Amino acid sequence: MTDPGATSHVTFIHLRTHSAYSLSEGALRIKQLAAMARSMGMPALAITDTGNLFGALEFSETLAEKGIQPIIGCTLKVDLAAASPGGARQQQGLRTFPALVLLAKDEQGYRNLMRLSSRAYLDSPEHAEPHCPWSLIETHHQGLICLTGGPDGPVNDALVQNQPQLARQHLERLAALFGDRLYVELQRHGTDNERAAEPGLVELAYDMDLPLVATNQAYFATPDDYAAHDALICIAGGEVIAAEDRRRLTVEHYFKPQEAMAALFADLPEAIDNTVEIARRCAFRVKSRDPILPRFAEGDEAIELRRQAEEGLNMRLATLGTIAGYDQEDYRKRLAFELGIIISMNFTGYFLIVADFIKHAKSQGIPVGPGRGSGAGSMVS
Question: For a Cys staple, 147 with which of 101, 241, 358, 374, CB 3.0–4.6 Å?
């Protein structure tokens, strides 16, 4: 096995990996990715799931345990309509948008990536896929390396539509914002759109003195997994395999070895070399930490918990009474005992926050489960 710590012979780093957290799209488990990267001698690996960072912590921790540098990224849909024409498209009743790939270079970049992916879900209107307006990218681009998005990116899209001037406008806008953190992305999975766009991408990159980078969107492990993954894509889209007009990937969308990628881009070796350069520029990984709960109240949380619990007990005693064999004093002693345990273990904020969620759900007619365990079964709860 190649030592993943030895970087002298590294030729290629995967920067466009879709894990199983690319929901209904990726088929690569995190542990599987770590094992493949190690077996292929890759000292670093990027995760760029579509629209989310769900796998960031697991990916970071798992790869670090294997001695592999994790690079956290995201394939993020962007609305360019406010900045230029050619933004959203309509597809099966859903507004769709071109994609950019953003990689966290440092902690600031990761924080911005979290902001962008969160806003994409929280602010996108109904009947539109999660996306960010260009203005939000302008506000939160610091610490991020940008790849132009490959076949799903705005530059490729303009070139395929025979709009070279629009492609240049998109690239100029990206270059003005990201500077030396922008890379023009090339992919060779053998699709017509990739072949149509590549000459224009290379010409624009050379003309504007922008670096090229070769990527391979890996959705599954080996070519043998293609048929099963194609079935997954059909399930996600509610289509049948025999349908002609549906989303399709290719057998080339697998986790390729370094040697295969170097051979594929032998005519553009700098595009391969830049994958290693990008990996060296990224020096941040997500680490697990104890949960940080917000303060529920400005005052003493223990006093607030006691107040709410005692009010709740008084209300229930007044409306429901006691069960046979117990009097009110038994209930009050039990409540005081539980409160003492909860407060001594510093769980006051946790109980108050959960109670706030449950009260709101009940006030809105949202069903609430009975819960389980000592916390849910306590008199305080």
Answer: 101
Do residues 242 and 230 lie in contact, with contact meaning Cβ atoms separated by under 8 Å?
Answer: no
Spell out a b/e string for 23-60, using b for 16 or more CB atoms within 10 Å of the CB, else e: eebbbbbbebbbebbbebbbbbbbbbbbbbbbbbbbbb
171: which residues sit within 8 A by CB, 6+ positions away? 148, 155, 184, 204, 208, 210
Q: Are 284 and 109 in contact (CB under 8 A)?
A: yes
Beta bridge mates, 208: none
Question: Residue 124 has what DSSP assignment?
Answer: P
By the 8 A CB rule, do 355 and 311 touch?
Answer: no
Look at phi and psi of residue 41 and say left if phi exceeds 0, alpha if psi is from -120 to 50, else beta: left
pLDDT tens profile 232-265: 999 988 889 988 888 999 999 999 999 999 999 9
* Nearest of 65, 76, 75, 74 to residue 33 by alpha carbon: 65
The region of weakest confidence among 125-139, 290-304, 361-375 is 290-304
pLDDT at 303: 94
Helix (H) or strand (E) holding 208: none
Q: Exposure pattern of 307-316 as b/e (b: 16+ CB <10 Å)? A: ebbeeebeee
CA angle 53, 27, 7 (to 5 degrees): 70
Q: Which residues on neighbouring strands pair with residue 250, listed in sequence order?
A: none
- Confidence grade of residue 66 (pLDDT, cut at 50, 70, 90): very high
Q: What is the pLDDT of residues 130-165, one digit of tens each?
A: 999 999 999 999 999 999 999 999 999 999 999 999
Token output for 240: 């049948």
Strand 144-147 relative to strand 99-104, pairing = antiparallel
**CA proximity to 381, closest of 372, 62, 364:** 372
